[in-house]
Amino acid sequence: MSHLTRVTAIALLLCLSMVGAQAQAPALRNGGPAVSPDARLREVDRDPKLYEQYFRTGKRVAAFCANCHGEGGNSVKTDVPNLAGQNTSYLLNQVRQFSDGRRKNEFMEGLMKALSNDEKVGIAVFYASQEVVHRPARDAALAAKGKAYYDRICFRCHGESGHGSDQYARIAGQQPDYLTQTLRRYRDGTGNRVDALMAANTRGMSDSDIQAVVAYVTAMR
């Protein structure tokens, strides 16, 4: 079986499993006009009972994600991103981009398209509530060099603590190989993701700069 066929088959099996789970799960909405995921997320933020409902939905759906992103969103693979602690609005937007094809990954695109809007919101709520497993820096000197670079440039969008915002990703505690690949792709213009700001801010990074920044960022809490 080819890699493409295998990936497609896995995605189909997961989608079918989700359909079965959706059929058994109680509806979160009580009728009325459709509500956008962003509007629903704002409702969830204001209503503790609704939050609990969406948290449970997200936890259930996250069981399918654990094979790659780990239990609770702490990936066991250094080239697969952690989702734990990610900002809810940012994560929901990434899910939406996979769903509509703006962000490219065959497996993720198929999986996200299979989710209902409620499940997409639930995923964001669940992962945002999880804690990132902290990994101290292995090379203190390299991390210090990375901090100096981060404090000059990266903090402007990702914040002094690396926790980002609704528009920018939390990168504190992120997986090292994933960060390295992402920074190189933005710098070299070789990835599918297009972000003019990231491209501009990584264009002058050397490989040693990237290595240092990754050493620092992965050790941030």
Descriptive overview:
The longest helix has 22 residues, at 3-24. This protein folds into two domains: 3-29 and 36-128, Cytochrome Bc1 Complex, Chain D, domain 2, CATH 1.10.760; 140-217, Cytochrome c-like domain (Cytochrome Bc1 Complex, Chain D, domain 2). The model is unreliable at 1-27 (pLDDT under 50). It is globular. The protein has helices spanning 3-24, 37-46, 48-69, 88-100, 106-113, 117-128, 140-152, 155-158, 176-188, 196-202, 207-217. 61% of the residues lie in helices and 0% in strands.
Shape: globular
Question: Regions with pLDDT < 50 over 5+ consecutive residues?
Answer: 1-27
Q: What's the multimeric state?
A: single chain
Identify the CATH homologous superfamily of the largest domain. Cytochrome c-like domain
Number of domains: 2
**Proportion of residues in helical segments:** 55-70%
Salient structural properties:
221 residues; Cytochrome Bc1 Complex, Chain D, domain 2; single chain; disordered N terminus
Describe the protein's topology.
Blueprint: H1 3-24, H2 37-46, H3 48-69, H4 88-100, H5 106-113, H6 117-128, H7 140-152, H8 155-158, H9 176-188, H10 196-202, H11 207-217
Short characterization:
This protein is mainly α and 221 residues long. The chain has helices at 3-24, 37-46, 48-69, 88-100, 106-113, 117-128, 140-152, 155-158, 176-188, 196-202, 207-217. It folds into two domains: 3-29 and 36-128, Cytochrome Bc1 Complex, Chain D, domain 2 (Orthogonal Bundle); 140-217, Orthogonal Bundle (Cytochrome Bc1 Complex, Chain D, domain 2), CATH 1.10.760.10.
